[in-house]
Structure formats: C-alpha cells, structure tokens
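Hi support team,

I submitted a single chain yesterday and got back a structure, but I'm not sure I'm reading the token output correctly. Could someone confirm the output below corresponds to the sequence I sent? I've pasted both exactly as they appear in my results page.

Thanks,
R.
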Amino acid sequence: MMEAELAITGLGRRGDGIAEWNGQSLHVPFVLPGEKVRAAIEGERPSVLARLVDGPGRVRPFCPHFGQCGGCQAQHMSAELYRQWKQGLLSEALRQHGIVTEAMPLVDAHGEGRRRASFHVRVDGGAVRAGFMEMRSHRLADIATCPILVPALGPLHGICLAIGAVLGNCDVSATATAGGLDVAVKAE
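Hi R., thanks for writing in. Yes, this is the structure output for that exact sequence:
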C-alpha cells in the first residue's frame, strides 16, 4: 500500500472522483472535482485518508447512512453538480451511439423519489437482518429506513424480515407502482 496526494479532476460513471496517478486513472469514492485528498492506494481503488481541499460542489449528505450504504453515491454533490453529471452521462451514452442532441433538464425527485429498491436479507444464527449492501462489498448494512425511498416503500424492511424468516437468505426487489407494491423475491 502506498500513500499519495491526489487531485480530483472529474467524475466517473458511478460518481467516483477521477485522479491521475503514475500514468493511471484512479476512481476515488466520495470525492469531487477540484478536491485534493491524501489517499491509500492499493490496487485500482484508493481509499481517502483525508480530504485536504473541498471542491466547490460539495454539500453535506442528508442520509445518516451515506458512506456505509452502497445505494447512494452522490449525496455529497450539490444539486447543480449532480444535474451536470447526470446530463453528461446521458449525453455521452447517446454520443457513443452516434446521437448528438441536447439533453432535457433533469427532473429531480427532491428526496423521497426513489420508487425501486433491492433489499438483501440474511439469516445468521437465527437472527434475520435486512438492508442494503455496503459499497463494493457483500457485507450487509442493516438499514431499516432510507430517506430517499417513496413512502409506499416504507414497509419494505418489515416485509423483508418476514420473508427472510420463512425463506432464509434472499434478495427482495420492490417497485412502487400506481397499483401498489410490485415485489420480486430471489431465494438462495
């Protein structure tokens, strides 16, 4: 493992900051363009030891689970930076297919707007736990509530615990639709 000071110059497709180091492009989690960090570099995924300079687009994440849960990776971005990043992703995807057009403005769900979620249920020693996976991990972050889910998905954690008590380890995907919850269960 090596330590290095990195200057973040862009954002990757998954919201990681991009830095150049020793001729290679590194993807650094939870950092933004314009930031400087001290990072531990081991393989392709550095981990931030300290943020030395904050970027102009940094805001305080509103979710208490940000950084632990792997579900959201952009809550530290300002609304404007987030819009630019998402529109850039769309424009680049279209450009790669020969379509050059101006993307329409992003429709922001303002917090409680996520209609789909996948919970993971694990049983260990008789205890049933449900939540999201930690970022880049198969470790379960036992999270009962998520502030960005639409209210219709609120009971999903309890549903997952009940399903897990019967089926054991499984993954539960749910979508809030006009007719109610659409739930799919994949048991191991």
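A quick pointer for reading it: The two ends are 36 Å apart (CA to CA). Let us know if anything else looks off.

Best,
Support desk
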